[in-house]
Amino acid sequence: MEMNTNLALVLVLAPFLGFLINVFFGKSLGKTVSGIIGTAAVVVSFAVTLFFFSEITQTKQAIQVTLFDWIQISNLHINLGFLLDQLSLLWLLFVTGIGSLIHLYSISYMHDDENMHKFFSYLNLFVFFMITLVMGSNLLVLFIGWEGVGLCSYLLIGFWYKNQDYNDAAKKAFIMNRIGDLGLLIGMFILGSMFSTLDYATLKTAIAGATNLNIPLLSLAALCLFIGACGKSAQIPLYTWLPDAMAGPTPVSALIHAATMVTAGIFMVTRLNFVFDLAPDVQTVIAVIGAVTSLVAATIGLVQTDIKKVLAYSTVSQLGLMFLALGFGAYEVAVFHVITHAFFKACLFLGSGSVIHGLHGEQDMRKMGGLRKAMPVTFWTMLISSLAISGVPFFSGFFSKDEILMTAFHHSIPLYVVGSIASILTAFYMFRLMFLTFFKEFRGTEEQKYHLHESDGLITFPLMILALLATFGGLISLPGNSWLNDYLAPLFTKVAGEEHHLGTTEYTLMGIAVAGGLLGILIAYIKYFKQDNVPESDENITGLTKVLYNKYYVDEIYDVIFVRSVNVLSRFFRDYIETGLSAFVFGLGKVTNEIGFQGKKLQNGSIGLYLFAFVLGLCAIISYIFLAQ
Questions:
Q1: Can you tell me the distance from the alpha carbon of 600 to that of 616, in angstroms, rounded to the nearest whole number?
Q2: Which residues span the membrane (predicted)?
Q3: pTM to 2 decimals?
């Protein structure tokens, strides 16, 4: 037990130690050394995770580590502890594994940045908080990590702080996440007041043993928790921060989208599956929000010209599909897609970073093209990941996305249709990205063309590893023979999305999904390869394309409803309420000053005046006594 405690502390604290070293000594150590220290810290956590994963796989027993009693208020008792079970270790594998690859990639990608040591310290801190979130044995420890990754996203999105637009994007992410976090806090308060605990295991036991459970109040808690998940995992209406988060360096985008922050909402809902299973109305809301988010984000992704913005809306769309599965109680299916998505989305973001790196910062796909020969490793790895996200057999995304669509078909035909359309659009915009970036003639400047070259090994090696995982990652959960479902079985009271054994219906659905994906790819091929179309310049975009390009004007609507209304209210209080109150307060001060000024005239040092006042006072007292009698 003591060894488990020590190893758990190493797992959590190794990235934090890397953060401290780079914060205090990184600049003097030099860029390469600070990068190596930051990467090694996460690799250590990954190695410990592998040890625990091997142990859990053999014993099938969760490891509980309690460090100390933390909070004791009345009958509420909370420990500071960690829970290492099937779910947390699965998350830790890709948080630390993909996190290690992203750190390794960053050594080369950020080498020309003067604040490279600071970048690695922030990355390490990000991973530390995500590990804390995942490993926490109760909701309060989760909340520490939850707020920590929000802080780190703010620091990293606005890392190039001399650009005001990047600062605005960082503030937007921070504020929108605070809105969701309020919902999470309220949900925690409700659960704490109902069961006098926030510990996962105790909560599960208390809910299972309750005889007169207050279902409406529990449903309210579940809804508030889901609002928190909407903020962190970018679902409608709190999704607009995530595309703007592309302001940060590309490794940050990969870390946020693939391995850490946006998966936190999925993790929390899955961890509290025993709460959400008792709130079917809330589950319906989750499924509907997930499906609508998936479709809305996919339509916006159709016309974006910034390579990272396309991938950002792709992430929002894929997260919507995960929530669609969660809404049907198919937690293991959602987790499956989280894992495969981590593989191919990390590869896609790091691949886009390789392209941007090769073009000296250019992100507009209209100024790319023809990079296939100059950057072959980047091209092939991104092609594999694009095939995976498009659901092409037999890449990883084919298996996980099919599971989600099959689950939706068995629960709600309308939501299945919405999810299927979103999947077709995904295939289209991903291959639109591939054709515009890698095929035909180069559309950039002659200077860019002259300097075109493949990225170095520190960038291409992580891409190749992730491409392999994007290819074979789906093998962990094959229909009728799912290692993942068996591995996660102890966590769920019921398996809502029961394993889909292949029958006529399943083969038909699979065929429809594959045909839809291939149709999307074919349309992109005709439009952007055969016809060699290039998107219009911003000023020439019109009609529906303009609406989609401007993201349905949701940011503008939010600006009118919330930002401007708050500004108007603030100006009203400033100009009238605060001014009036200030006048009143200052008026009281002036009256007091005047009374003091007049009063001090009596204190003039004249003994005669003092005796006269004394006699007047004495006469008044005697008069009062006689009159009272």
A1: 19
A2: 7-26, 32-53, 89-107, 119-137, 182-201, 213-231, 252-270, 282-303, 310-328, 334-356, 377-395, 415-438, 458-478, 507-526, 607-627
A3: 0.89
